[in-house]
Protein: CO8G protein
Organism: Thinocorus orbignyianus
Amino acid sequence: QLAGRWFLVGVASRCGYLAQHSHRLEATAVTVTVEDGQSLAISTLRRLDGTCWELRQRYLPAEAHGHFLLKGRGYGSRVEMVVGETDHSTYAILYYQRGRSISVKLYGRTSQVSDAVVDKFEERVRAVGLNGDVTYYFPHYGGWHTAPWDTHSQGSAQE
């Protein structure tokens, strides 16, 4: 039910890079497809320095329902993802954990979500010990991310 297009609306994270570069956040679109009936293939389209990039990741199902695992390269690159809350039609709140570091992301089927959904997201952020100082919202201007993927993907990276 997570399959389809999503927009990254907000993220809460203690990531130093994000804190230093939060003024450069760009609209980010994500397409989720379900492979083999279980794994999530996630294609993220974002702009960086004027170029559109596509990042492809494959999350494998973990033991518990709604839990997924991304196995990266190298020590400490394993990321656990948990679907925290979603209505599947307007928003999804996902938790990501790498080692002891946790982040919370808010996705919407459109680049804007209701104030009630933002309130839910901010409650979930506080519940994991994060706060507004490390919460960032993505801009929703521009139209490059609404066009078909294959016409705008100039670069690609795979993890």
The CA atoms of residues 90 and 109 lie 5 Å apart.
